[in-house]
């Protein structure tokens, strides 16, 4: 069988609420070899923006980018957090409202909007920064979406678009394919990756650069890895086979001395108009 591809309806179900995304974030948080937080690293690149800026995040998910950087968000940024999923918007709103810092300061700077990335409901040249953090590969028509993101950026504005490379989580792919060749995950991100994203961005932006984030995973417990896998493929493994898959993963951990190495390949495109 071929690679596992997610239909748009399945993608919508994946991100209906934060449960699946939370499981994936947890694995990276616990077992990444680079202990400098990914969200802090992404934000490092944004801090060169003007002190007074309008900022739009497309596909904000649970609001983790902002939650992890509450201590250094410029006070004169006006921020719009958007997502196609109403459930994600509600989770982001709740997560950010739960912090005392946000209640006192950030809440006055942020608004939440629900819309799709290929129909951005803002005027041309509205924003200084646009962020698309690991989400463009889910957009049905990436070229249309990039055109929209370019349209709403001011002259000199910047797009920050994070994605993965073709070798990202390769060992996890191999683990899954060893159980069932139909469970290959890599096709999920093929539309916009580190090796093909620049050419797509260059159709819309004059300058495109790539910054790579160096890290891997050293996973020492089966349960978080199983939660990660379950968040991705529960629609593809029937309940009767899940116990067999769990036993297979536990056996692989035992074979490898209770440690699984999984390489990461991820980075951030910075595009300027």
Which structural class best describes the helix and strand composition?
A: alpha/beta
The appropriate CATH architecture is: 3-Layer(aba) Sandwich
Shape label: globular
Number of strands: 9
| Order of neighbouring strands in the sheet with most strands | 3-2-1-4-5-9-6
Whole-number total of structural domains: 1
* Share in helix: 25-40%
Query: Quick one: biggest sheet?
Result: 7 strands, mixed
* Discrete helix count: 11
| Whole-number mean pLDDT | 88
- CATH fold-level topology: Rossmann fold
| Radius of gyration, whole Å | 19 Å
Percent strand equals 15-25%
CATH class: Alpha Beta
* Beginning-to-end CA distance, first to last residue: 42 Å
Low-confidence stretches: 1-18
How do the helices and strands follow one another from N- to C-terminus? HHHEHEHHEEHEHHEEHHEE
Per CATH, the superfamily is Vaccinia Virus protein VP39
Question: What report would you give on this structure?
Answer:
There is one protein chain. The chain is α/β, with parallel strands linked by helices. It has one domain (about 10-170, about 185-215, about 265-270): 3-Layer(aba) Sandwich (Rossmann fold). About 40% of the residues lie in helices and about 20% in strands. It is built from eleven helices and nine strands. It has helices spanning about 10-15, 20-30, 40-45, 65, 85-95, 100-105, 140-150, 170-180, 195-200, 220-235, 240-255, and strands at about 55-60, 75-85, 110-115, 125-135, 155-165, 205-215, 215-220, 260-265, 265-270. The strands form two sheets. Strands 3-2-1-4-5-9-6 form a seven-stranded mixed sheet. Strands 7-8 form a two-stranded antiparallel sheet. Helix 2 runs antiparallel to helix 10 (about 220-235). The chain is globular, with a radius of gyration of 19 Å. The model is unreliable at about 1-20 (pLDDT under 50).
């Amino acid at each position: 069988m071929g690679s596992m591809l997610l239909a748009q309806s399945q993608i919508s179900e994946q991100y209906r609420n934060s449960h699946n995304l939370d499981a994936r974030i947890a694995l990276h948080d616990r077992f990444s070899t680079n202990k400098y937080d990914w969200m802090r690293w992404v934000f490092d690149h944004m801090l060169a923006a003007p002190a007074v800026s309008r900022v739009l995040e497309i596909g904000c998910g649970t609001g983790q980018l902002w939650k992890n950087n509450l201590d250094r968000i410029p006070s004169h940024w006006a921020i719009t957090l958007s997502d196609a999923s109403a459930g994600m918007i509600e989770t982001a709103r709740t997560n950010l409202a739960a912090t005392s810092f946000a209640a006192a300061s950030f809440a006055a700077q942020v608004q939440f909007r629900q819309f799709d990335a290929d129909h951005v409901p803002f005027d041309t040249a509205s924003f200084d920064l646009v962020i698309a953090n690991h989400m463009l590969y889910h957009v049905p028509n990436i070229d249309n979406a990039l055109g929209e993101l370019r349209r709403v950026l001011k002259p000199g504005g910047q797009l920050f678009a994070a994605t993965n490379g073709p070798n990202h989580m390769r060992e996890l792919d191999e683990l899954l394919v060893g159980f069932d060749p139909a469970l290959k995950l890599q096709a999920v991100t093929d539309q916009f990756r580190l090796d093909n994203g620049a050419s797509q961005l260059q159709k819309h932006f004059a300058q495109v650069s790539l910054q790579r984030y160096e890290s891997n995973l050293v996973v020492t417990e089966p349960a978080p890895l199983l939660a990660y896998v379950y968040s991705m493929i529960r629609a593809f493994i029937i309940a009767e086979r899940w116990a067999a898959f769990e036993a297979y993963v536990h056996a692989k951990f035992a074979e490898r001395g209770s440690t699984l190495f999984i390489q990461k390949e991820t980075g951030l495109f910075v595009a300027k108009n």
